[in-house]
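Here is a typical sample entry:
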Amino acid sequence: MKKRNLIMIITSMYTALILFFMFFGFNRLEHRDDYMDAGYEFMLIPSSVPLNFPSLTFSWLYDFGNIAAFIPFGILIPLLIHCHYKKFIGSFILMILGLETIQSLVYLGTFDVDDVISNTIGATIGYLVYKVGFTSNLTLKKLIASCLSAVLLLTCVMIISEVLEKRVSSIQPLHAIKETAGAHPLTNDIPIFTVAGHKIEPHYNLYSNEGTTSKTYTYMIDGKEDVILFLHLGMPDEEEPQGNVTIVMDGKEIFQADEVYLQETETLEMPLEIPLFYEANKLTIAITGHIKLWDIGFTEMKHWWE
């Protein structure tokens, strides 16, 4: 009985500590007005992996805490109430869903399904640790085995997260996309020219219009995620300052520039970054006059093995 009472006291104190951090920690009261301005927020779609490999950042420590802080519940609750995993984890998930909902309703946080997943992983690790060393009399050997089990399981979570995580790729030349139509950029023996007195030496491609009519370059980029286009543009000093470039994504214009716009390029940061639509399919670049675009590339979200 004394042992059970001690476990109940520890569980109650630890629960109070977790509730404090969930509702008052991280300066939540100071940011309550911000939550109220944003309104009720319920993020129901997972947006990140639970835990990447260790890094000295607040973000990683926060993700680690979201898992590690709930490991004790997987040990303490089964010690108090002997139950199978399904009953334990079902009750735990309902509890976390309720707390996340209350957080949002009282404007002391947001409902985030990522937190629910991380907390549940932590509780699951705790339950497995409980099964390894706490189902019978605890010994030093079992305690060491339990600690090693927790470390191993956390490592497995990190490995799986690294496999599932998508990261921004390095910048790839736009012409690397094989599904194309219309004109093709110059990629070999690219001429050198000057723009606003600066010598321009394109590294891997040049898009221009050599004739009097417009020239169109088209790329099919479906299947790529969170694409960002990078480009340099300008009007060569030796050319008459007239021309226009239009970039269209799935029939919707997302960028347009002419000679008037280019007079301000010295105040613009190069290369320009143009985010494309999440489910973009067809990218079209139309050029008229003497405007030139060079070193057009893109990044996308990819797994490490892609």
